[in-house]
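Hallway conversation turned thread

IA: we were arguing at lunch whether anyone had actually written out Rhodanese-like protein end to end. Turns out nobody had. So, for the record, here is the sequence (530 residues) and right after it the structure tokens. Reply here if something looks off.
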Amino acid sequence: MSQTITPQQLQQWLHDGREIALFDVREHGQYGAAHLFYGVSLPYSRLELDAVRLAPNPAVRLAIYDETGGELAERAAVRLRALGYRRVHILDGGAQGWRAAGFELFAGVNVPSKAFGERVELACATPHISAPELAARQARGEPLLVLDGRPFEEYRKMNIPGAICCPNGELGYRLGDLVADERTTIVINCAGRTRSIIGAQTLINLGVKNPVYALENGTQGWFLADLPLEHGSTRRYPESTEPAGLAERREAAQRLAARAGVEALAAQQVAAWADDPERSLFLLDVRSAEEFAAGSLAGARHAPGGQLIQATDQYVGVRGARIVLFDAEGIRAPIVASWLRQAGHDAHVLAGGLDSGLALAGRVPAFELPALAEADAATLADELAGDAVRLFDLRPSMAYRAVHIKGADWSIRPLLAAAAAGETRPLRLLADDPWLARLAALELPEAQRETVRICRADPAVWRAAGLALEEGGGQPPDAECIDFLFFVHDRHAGNKAAARQYLAWELGLLAQLDARELAAFRPLVAEDRS
């Protein structure tokens, strides 16, 4: 049996100033329905693939939880210890035990980042503009620049008419190529509230002289006002490597970082931190995906700046860890670090950035997986025709619902062993990622595991092999789709009630926080811009 920790002990640990990783090992849908405020999603189906990325130091103090503190948490603890983690504790009673002890659970994802955005708006009185007012200004032909602070993939799904994609992490770097007249009004939008607020306040904190506003409620507010959105747009910031006003932007970014208490660290200091056995270190490259792919520092991970602010828990799984950011020009990293500092993180920048010469050795997780052979679609078709095998589809439940091979059962790692119990036929596992199939196979008894073959998950290949497919339908039922978050999932699909519910959820987050959670946020009060 693993060590346990009571809800009261965990509450103390979360606020004692020492590092702690708190992992929710349930699947994404379960996590999003109700989780602890500082809980980081580490689904059991992906545990070995994501654990080291989220908690790189095996000596970190680690607490995990499931729904009730039961079998799933025990299985996850075994796997984490196999990865080398030495201080694993299971929350007694799980999420239900936390609630029973009188503590709050939160719906949704990236909750700390979203709550921080709401706190920033209140503390800084971030100016906002309603969708009808922005539409009226556009109709009057006023000088306006609407910037969408989301990644390009999100922007292309729907955007405010005329908006240009410029993710928040790029704003301070790219603005000089987007606007030249200080009289032009700048409006930052996202799909909801957080990135609109953070984007607008970024420009205000940098001392931009233009009038700056956050679009109230983003594209959802636009939709709720019965205004038409664009879809499939491709406008984005210019790809210049020397944007206009670079020196001025760099100076403003460094002033902002200093206000937030961000330090610039020499490469030697960061290397020494990496060797500290008692602390966790995250070295993050905040540039664009294209820049990162072209070359980065050894040991660094990619975390685009805007998304790092918006979804910190997807990149950093240790509360209180040391976070060191870098870029190539000395603008983006200081700005992002200033926000992380305000959100309560121990954030720094690497002096010299990409040219610092820093090289760190990354930790390689040590775990063994069964070497599973593959079965092609034609062979699978023959096997299914003779009812010779049992087929499990391990793709996301919504992908299974859309189309699957007739006779395949949907499953996922934490459920697979129970679903296959008593099955004497050889097993076939369909998966988008062979690693997920190999992890799932770990759950099976050895005799069954030896019969497993992995099959490529590709409907086009299935059709070509003559496999019978089924499309649509409500299987598996919602209650069994533990990997999918139904929480206002159709807010971007024409459902106004879902959009209103989501915005109400964002606005209500601060009321759910306790005094210590609120005190962790330290937003900078906006300076006088007159």
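OS: looked through it. The CA atoms of residues 379 and 465 lie 9 Å apart.
IA: good, adding that to the notes. The longest strand covers residues 144-148.
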